[in-house]
Amino acid sequence: MKASLLQMTSGIDPAANAHAIADGVAQAAAEGGAMLFTPEMSGLLDGNRERARGHVVAEGEDLVLAATREAAAKHGIWVHLGSLAVLGEGGKFLNRGYVIDGTGAIRASYDKLHLFDVDLPTGESWRESNTYRPGERAILVDTPIGRLGLAICYDMRFPDLFRALSDAGATALSVPAAFTRPTGQAHWHVLLRARAIEAEAWLIAAAQTGVHADGRATYGHSLVIDPWGEVLLDMGEEAGLGTVEIDLARVDDVRSRIPVLRHRRPIPPVETFA
Hints:
Layout: E1 2-7, H1 14-30, E2 35-37, H2 49-53, H3 63-75, E3 78-87, E4 93-100, E5 106-111, E6 117-119, E7 125-127, E8 140-143, E9 146-150, H4 159-167, E10 172-174, H5 181-199, E11 202-205, E12 209-211, E13 217-219, E14 223-225, E15 231-234, E16 240-245, H6 249-257, H7 260-263
Parallel strand pairs: 1-2, 2-3, 9-10, 10-11
Antiparallel strand pairs: 1-16, 3-4, 4-5, 6-7, 8-9, 11-14, 12-13, 14-15
């Protein structure tokens, strides 16, 4: 079973981003991919919130979502559209990912649980909570590459989410991202490998890369990691498509050797001693 990842440099024009995704769907299908994964904020990456508001609409009106569904149906391939900014109730945005099947139907959607509010040593400051509302559900969905647990970017720093997903039966995990370069260089590989090893599951992380139209720079290095923690694909810093073989039997093999999931126990209350 093959999975394809589209590493993007998404910009401030949703129509251009939709065209890039549709081209990626066609290329992934031509390479034999059963499922294509795209990054966080595939449809619009714009740090100027006032300008972005002109493009953020309810999901039923989103041209990127519509174009991706059409391309998936045309080429008969599943797509995890990593995330889009969509308009929610009360005027707040949602950072929402979609799993779309080979008929173009939406099988599941997931709203990012953990929002990135941080001041970096570089002077960069991000306040997702000013604009976005956090999600309230953890999501699993059956796909051609197994039972897929959904996360988005900053979620990767919260292992409880991945424990819940693997306890519920996830055999693969998707972590689309738009990681900054400083945090990417320090933590991207090590955290994603840890999540794969802890869950003993495939981990697929499609990423944004390069310098974007709004001036920000993202880390790239889209990854596919097997349940043992081995990196089978690292796409570096160039935008484009990567395809890798997913061995579905690898999950059972690893879990039989180190049965971590069966050994998990409820953690008792912490006792503190002065």
